[in-house]
Amino acid sequence: MAKYRIAWMPGDGIGNDVMEAARLVLDSMQFDAEYLHGDIGWEFWCKEGDALPRRTIDLLGDVDAALFGAITSKPKEEAHAELASELRDKGLTYQSPIVRLRQTFDLATNLRPCKAYPGNPLNYREDIDLVVFRENTEDLYVGVEYHPVPESLSEELTKHPRWARFIEKNELEDIAVSLRINTRNGCRNIVRAAFEYAKQFGYPTVTVVEKPNVVRETSGLMVRTAREVAAEYPGIELWETNIDAMCMWLVKNPQNYGVLVASNMFGDIVSDLCAQLVGGLGFASSGNIGEKLAVFEPTHGSAPKYAGQYKTNPTAMLLTAKLMLDWLGETEEAERLENAVAETIVAGEVRTYDMGGSHSTIELAQAVADRLV
Ligand code: IPM
Ligand code: MG
Question: What's this model's pTM, rounded to 2 decimal places?
Answer without folding.
Answer: 0.96
